[in-house]
Each structure stands twice: as structure tokens, then as C-alpha cells.
Input
Amino acid sequence: MATPLTGRVAVITGGSRGVAETLRAQGAVCAICDRGNAAPHARDRERPHDDLVMTLDLRDPMAVDVFATAVEERYGRVDILVTSATATTAVPFESVSARAERALIEDNFLQVTGLIRRMLPLMGDGSAIVNLVQDEPCHALDAAVKAAVESLSGSLAVELAPRGVSVMAVTVEQAYQLWWSGIPSV
Output
């Protein structure tokens, strides 16, 4: 039985096990990468040959290149790119060290831009970039990084529209609603 995303290739970054399960349920095959142990994202028993699962750090451009090359060799394209910009500082502004601030920006913004830049050549007309952002940032730096990803998404949506690539920043809850109702252009 065909589902809304049957045959689509979804690339999903860390911390998104539920996202992968949801997209699989809609028929997509998934390429998943996670900085920690990617094993929890392990392949669905009913489709053991479909998914690509890699453990790597997206803050490392060479690791991103290895992952993108594996996606390209295995699937030849990316229909849905899901990035995760949901790390938080969990402390007030005055308590965040300069090092922690840089790490937050790298985790939530720079790895998103690096992955998008590398995956764009694999994306064609009708593909979508979905940038997951925090539901409710609790501190100033969290809110600032969320705003940066939202601004990036809006600007990229305009820039990539002529190529037929949709771009949006959504919370995890909004993403589930989106996938069950159908992503625009995918």
C-alpha cells in the first residue's frame, strides 16, 4: 500500500528517533546520523536493507562529507532533509561560558548550515528541508539561536524556491503534524 512518502529518501540528523519512525511509517527510507550511538535508530526489522545509519559528528566537515557521499552512493538523492537544532544551554545568560556559547552556536546553527550546504546538490525539485527548532527556548542564548535558524530557514525558502526546494523551521510537534498531513512539494 502506498503512503504519502513512499519511495522518498529522508536524511535525519541526531536525536530524531521518533522522526525516523514517523517518516518510515509514511513510506520513506531514512539515512540517519547521530553524534552518539546511532544504534537506537537501527533499521526496522521489516525493512532491514533500506536505511543507512551512521554515527558521526556533524560539526566535523569531513564527517559530513563522508555521510553525504554514503547517502549519494546509496540513494542518489535527498527528498527530505531534517536537521535538529534543539540543543539548549539550560542556564541563564550570565552563567554561560564563552566556550558553551560557541558550542551552542556550533550545535544548533553551524552544523545545520554545513549539512544543508553539503546536501543541496542531492536535492531537486519537490524536495524539502525541515529544520527542527526548540519548542520553547528557556534562556536568551537558546532563543537567539532558534531565531537564527528560523531566519535562515525563511531566507533559504526564498533563495531555493526557484529550484523547487521548500524550507521551513518547525518544532518537533509541528513536524509530526506536517508529516502526517503531507509536506508541501514532497
The mean pLDDT is 86.
